[in-house]
Amino acid sequence: MADAVLRTERLTKHFGGLAAVNDVSLEFYTDQIHAVIGPNGAGKTTLTSLLSGDLVSTSGSIYLDGEDIAGLSADRISQRGVGRSYQKTNIFLPFTAFENCRLAAQSRLPSSMRFTRPALRYADVSREALRALAEVGLEHRAQEPAAALSHGEQRQLEIAMTLATRPRILLLDEPLAGMGGEESARMVELLQKLKCAHAMMLVEHDMDAVFALADRLTVMVNGSVLESGTPDQIRASAAVQEAYLGSEEQHS
Amino acid sequence: MRSPRAATVVLLVCLLALALLPLVAEKYYIQLFTKMMIMAIFAMSLDLLVGYSGLVSLGHAAFFGLAGYSLAFAAPQYEAANLWLSLPLAMAGSGLLALVIGVLVLRTSGIYFIMVTLAFAQMVFFLFHDTKIAGGADGIYVYAKPVAAIAGWEPFTLENHTQFYFVVLVLLVLVYAFLRMLLASLFGRVIVGIRVNEQRMRSLGYRTFRYKLACFTIAGALAGMAGYFAAAQFGFVSPDILGWHQSGGVLMMVILGGMGTLNGAILGAFAMMLLELGFQGLPAMGGVDIGKHWQLLMGGFIVFAVLLLPHGLLGLGRLASRLLRKPAEEAADG
């Protein structure tokens, strides 16, 4: 197998005395969806934020193409091809859906210190924005203000913005949260398609989607990796049964 | 929805009125409107920060005032400065000061940003107030207006108040057009994005600090343009033009007119200065000299405007156009 595109080594993040992420070593490969699951508070979103540069780790390393990127700012990590979508919808509400994606696509120009030519005359950027919107199925809503979109559509827009930056690695934090059945199915189909060209980390609570999509699964509990393996291995794991899947079945 | 065409027509009518004003107005009013247009340029430069980038600066007068002093330095004693040389230099000086202050203050945000911009502007204020650089607290005269000579040929003279007026009017239009262009550019889209959601801009790969710094510098240089002409018109510079009163005044203009719209900034500048005159001119009533206490009335008006017009005076225009359109629409529907 080829080298991992993204790899963490003993990655740790402390908030005061709490180890939100503890000694996590994971690998992400192109053509693979690596799902990270675990109960609330397991440290999945914190892990995502460490990988995207929104948070700085306490110790450990993050290797992107073999180079340690731990400690780099979020904008630099983004420019190196890591795209993140947020669990809590994080978009530009007053702007149109199109402008949200256009801004995202614009970030890939060498510089935005351009003061004269109107932004809308950069045809490549606009085309890229429309492509991303079409990819998630929002092209018919392009001219709507993001604030006027439904919750599910805002989630789709969130993904479209990430795609418009042309990332090689996608960090998707609960992309399906709050989506209706049809939107969900469409998103699962999209993620399946995106897998070919991207390495993907998928944090998700929807177990049907996770087991349908994931090539590799990591279960986190209390900031640590409990188990990591193929979906079949995880399903068979006694530790996981006890700590996570089992307990959830008892609840339901 | 407000049609952009109606707004353009209103704008052109206002411009035409300003262009024709010197034909009918007396010298006093020409000079008054010159001053208002200078303040409108100042207000637009601040609106670029407050309204578009979300950077509420309470120290914008530092850049305005420094350019005024630059002119005073460029015109020692009775010698006039050359406009073509001293104006760019004054603007560059203000821009440079903004760049230096910006590097330090743009690391903060929110209320801290307001406090440190104020603190730095006060440092500049006391530099001129407490030292003998330029007359200290007494200020310094600019005896001669800058001359616009190019190799002996003078296309216009600022000594003539009507020509001064037209020069400022042209600059007002140029600054307006420049900012419109800027806001439509890639750079403009980035700074507005930063105001709406800076964290997301970073995660999209933008190094937001650079863009904020560039914006702060441009705003400083434009404030410098206004300060230069304010000093040239008034013929006198004192530390007051650098002080927090001045910074607060221009901020009120922007808020009163409507933040985040260039038209609002211009409207706010005009409205504030006309109101000030109107309140000052009120006659004594019942033994109380109301005009003397104009600031009380002004304060009341601002409170009233902020409470009732969240989008500033410009919001009033929008409201009016909506009310006017409603009956027409109903007629069309019926």
The helix-and-strand class of chain A reads alpha/beta
Would you count the extended β strands of chain B for me? 2
Stated plainly, the CATH topology of the largest domain in chain A is called Rossmann fold
Structural domains of chain A: how many: 2
Name the CATH class of the largest domain in chain A: Alpha Beta
Q: Strands across the major sheet of chain A, in which order?
A: 7-8-9-4-10-11
What best-fitting shape of chain A do the alpha-carbon axes yield? globular
SS-based class of chain B: mainly alpha
C-alpha Rg of chain B, in Å? 21 Å
> How many domains in all of chain B?
1
Q: What is the count of helical runs of chain B?
A: 12
Helix content of chain A: 25-40%
- Measured by DSSP, the beta-strand proportion of chain B falls in under 5%
The largest sheet of chain B is: 2 strands, antiparallel
| Low-confidence runs of at least 5 consecutive residues of chain B | none
Task: Write down the secondary-structure element order of chain B.
Answer: HHHHHEHHHEHHHH
The CATH homologous superfamily of the largest domain in chain A is named P-loop containing nucleotide triphosphate hydrolases
Largest protein interface, residues of each chain:
A-B, 35 and 25 residues
Give average pLDDT of chain A, whole number: 91
% residues in beta strands of chain A = 15-25%
